Amino acid sequence: MRTYAEKIFDEPNFLDASDEVETEAEAGAVSRYVTATVTHSGDQWTAVARDLPGGHVVRAEGATWREARKNIARRVLDLLPDEPGMTCFQFVPADPEAKAALEAVMGARSARAEAELAEVGATRSAARLLLDKGWSMQDVGHVLMLPRQRVSQLLHLDAE
Q: What is the pTM (predicted TM-score) of this model?
């Protein structure tokens, strides 16, 4: 069974130094942001997007949050001019307590992701330092609570 320390390294490394950085044009730069407020009443979800080009307000409904989200996105995209770039949507509960609860979850997830990236960087630095000081790959693995193969893999990724 893998330890927590090793599982982090199974995650995709989105900041891998070997990845080429795309230009904004290649990456499909974000050209617009749309926020839709979502309310729940009875057995219906309603999403409303305001402040759209031309002063338009778009409303869509669905039996579920997901369905309302999909319907509002489709209607907004149909309304917007066809321009290069990407449209990013944010869906926010109208209920302030629900909004605060979801913001807390997103904040915690963001903090966890940042902590995991910091752990990966610190682990690579420590492994490199210990090996440079003459430690064996096996000893480095033991002290970092990782198999020696994982240590070797982590250091190889930096060399590419």
A: 0.66
